[in-house]
């Protein structure tokens, strides 16, 4: 059953009801619970409490009543207003822990490579065509050069997930760097288009592995109250990387060897990341699950003070017991056999697909083309507008970082999708106007025509709404909704869905425009954004501020209902449906 079940209210203290379903746009941990109670009734309250029960069980305490809600006051307490409070304060701020920030920035170089590589090729291709006549004459060859990196990313994301679970996040990052460096250098010295394509494949593999590893590595080191902001920082590196690639494209236009430099310089951040990663530890959660507990605790000590440290260790201990009780080799098939993992994967992968099918990369990859379609024939203006759009995308991501742990993932995604829907309608209408103008004028559209500016406004509006929400939310959610043992495999498959969708959209956009016209194409994408809104509304749970154990518990409840889930404190993490 996909929707949560609502349980009896009898044991659960009610919070003051909020008339506004999204009143959770406040920062304290209590309001998380308050908003859950008002929006989703009391379903998640038990989820929030269950880690305390597991912790108590792990400590061998005896819980008297059926669900244990009254018996863990040392973990969750009621304050005067009837709100539930965690025992230790979860109030770390984004800037307060330099170690976590350093780790995030280093891991985020993976995001930078992702963004740079997806952005740089459009500019580089212009010069590759000048150097290789065969490429210039053959559009299939051009498409292969562009899309081979995405093919590599699809494979890299799928394999990278498994590598993450079996060999750890650190080794996965180092491997991504090595593959990326090889790919960049191969492209830089490529004597012919075939070698260039091989280099693109390598770079894509590296980007694919990084796209799954960086969010998971960051999320696992992050205190739960700032996890969203830290993972979204990796998305800022993606959008920053795209912006940087446009600047580099401009900077190298006059330099001999243009495209070789454009593609080759990407090796530098990968080398930097490789060196820094050597000094960073493996993810503490992965270490703990692999029974390297003292190493894990040594890392956790750098992140938490002593009170909080004990709580984190208790939770990890309870979670690792579950994993080892039922632990077996990580397998892709388990994702589909286990109901709770299947539900989580459905949500995570659905979000990734909708991120792409709501058209972000039609804007990022085809922005200059769209601007020209809107009637602005100057190449320079088209490129300048693309640069502005890329910059706005990065600035919008910063707003997402500021909001994601305050407003939560759901509100951010829903608001983002509403704005995306409206701006796609504006775009569609602008192109409708422009095509009627064209008919009326029986010639080319005039530069700066009303419809053209209308389209530019639509683009700007689109980015302003997409970037804080549907940009960071899918990556963040996918880094936090899977159980420990499957975080890599599920995150990897889900990232693969993102890359496959990216590939489909990028390949199809121009053909669909040819077939049904630009206005209709944007109308279709706006229809997809309505579906995406419904998907988020019905399937995406709020994970703001929750620990991994609380999130895991919540999926169990969704899958098995409350009673089964509570008896499955000891239930199979791979809860085969018996
Ligand atoms: C997406 C990329 C996209 C980028 C745009 C990311 O979150 O996954 O496909 O190009 O945002 O900023």
From TrEMBL:
Membrane topology: Multi-pass membrane protein
Keyword Transport: yes
Any one Gene Ontology molecular-function term assigned to this protein's record: transmembrane transporter activity
Record GO biological process: myo-inositol transport; polyol transmembrane transport
Keyword set includes Transport: yes
Matching PROSITE patterns: MFS, SUGAR_TRANSPORT_2
Spans through the membrane: 99-128, 140-162, 197-218, 230-252, 258-280, 381-404, 410-433, 445-465, 485-510, 522-540
Cellular component annotations (GO), alphabetically ordered: membrane
Cellular localisation: Membrane
Segments forming domain Major facilitator superfamily (MFS) profile: 103-544
Highest taxon of the lineage: Eukaryota
Keyword list, A-Z: Membrane, Sugar transport, Transmembrane, Transmembrane helix, Transport
NCBIfam families: SP
Record-stated family: Belongs to the major facilitator superfamily. Sugar transporter (TC 2.A.1.1) family.
Name of this chain's protein: Sugar transporter protein
Taxonomic lineage of the native organism: Eukaryota, Viridiplantae, Streptophyta, Embryophyta, Tracheophyta
């Amino acid at each position: 059953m996909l929707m949560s079940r609502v349980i009896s209210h009898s044991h659960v203290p009610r919070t003051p009801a909020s008339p506004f379903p999204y009143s959770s746009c406040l920062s304290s941990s209590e309001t998380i619970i308050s908003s859950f109670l008002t929006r989703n009734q009391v379903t998640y309250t038990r989820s929030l409490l269950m880690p305390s029960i597991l912790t108590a069980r792990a400590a061998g305490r005896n819980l008297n009543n059926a669900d244990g809600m009254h018996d863990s006051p040392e973990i969750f307490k009621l304050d005067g207003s009837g709100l539930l409070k965690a025992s230790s304060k979860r109030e770390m701020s984004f800037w307060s822990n330099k170690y976590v920030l350093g780790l995030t920035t280093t891991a985020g170089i993976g995001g930078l490579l992702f963004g740079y590589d997806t952005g740089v090729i459009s500019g580089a291709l212009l010069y590759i065509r000048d150097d290789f006549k065969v490429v210039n004459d053959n559009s299939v060859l051009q498409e292969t050069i562009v899309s081979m990196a995405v093919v590599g990313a699809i494979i890299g994301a799928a394999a990278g997930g498994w590598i993450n679970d079996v060999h750890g996040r650190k080794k996965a990052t180092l491997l991504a760097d090595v593959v990326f460096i090889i790919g960049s250098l191969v492209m830089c010295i490529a004597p012919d288009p075939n070698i260039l394509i091989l280099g693109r494949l390598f770079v894509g593999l590296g980007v694919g592995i990084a796209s799954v590893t960086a969010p998971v590595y960051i999320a696992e080191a992050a205190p739960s109250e700032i996890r969203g902001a830290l993972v979204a920082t990796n998305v800022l590196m993606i959008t920053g990387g795209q912006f940087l690639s446009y600047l580099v494209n401009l900077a190298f236009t006059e330099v001999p060897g243009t495209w070789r430099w454009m593609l080759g310089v990407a090796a530098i951040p990968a080398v930097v990341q490789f060196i820094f990663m050597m000094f960073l530890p493996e993810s503490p959660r992965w270490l703990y699950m692999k029974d390297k507990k003292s190493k894990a605790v040594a890392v956790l000590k750098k992140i938490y003070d002593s009170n909080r440290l004990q709580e984190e260790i208790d939770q990890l201990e309870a979670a690792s017991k579950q994993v080892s009780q039922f632990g077996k080799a990580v397998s892709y098939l388990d994702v589909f056999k286990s109901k709770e993992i299947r539900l989580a994967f459905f949500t995570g992968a659905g979000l990734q697909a909708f991120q792409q099918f709501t058209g972000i990369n039609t804007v990022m990859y085809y922005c200059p083309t769209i601007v020209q379609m809107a009637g602005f024939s100057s190449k320079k203006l088209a490129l300048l507008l693309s640069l502005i759009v890329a910059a706005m995308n990065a600035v919008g991501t910063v707003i997402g970082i500021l909001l994601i742990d305050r407003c939560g993932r759901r509100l951010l995604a829903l608001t983002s999708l509403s704005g995306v829907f409206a701006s796609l309608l504006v775009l569609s209408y602008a192109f409708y106007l422009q095509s009627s103008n064209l008919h009326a004028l029986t010639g080319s559209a005039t530069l700066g025509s009303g419809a053209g500016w209308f389209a530019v406004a639509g683009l700007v509006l689109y980015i302003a709404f997409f970037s804080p929400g549907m940009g960071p939310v899918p990556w963040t959610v996918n880094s936090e909704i899977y159980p420990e043992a499957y975080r890599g495999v599920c995150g990897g498959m889900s990232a693969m869905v993102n890359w496959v969708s990216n590939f489909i959209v990028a390949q199809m956009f121009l053909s669909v425009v040819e077939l049904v016209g630009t206005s209709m194409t944007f109308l279709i994408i706006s229809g997809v954004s309505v579906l995406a809104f419904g998907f988020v509304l019905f399937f995406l749970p709020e994970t703001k501020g929750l620990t991994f154990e609380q999130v895991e518990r919540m999926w169990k409840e969704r899958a098995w209902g409350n009673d089964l889930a509570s008896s499955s404190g000891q239930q199979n993490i791979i809860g085969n449906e018996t």
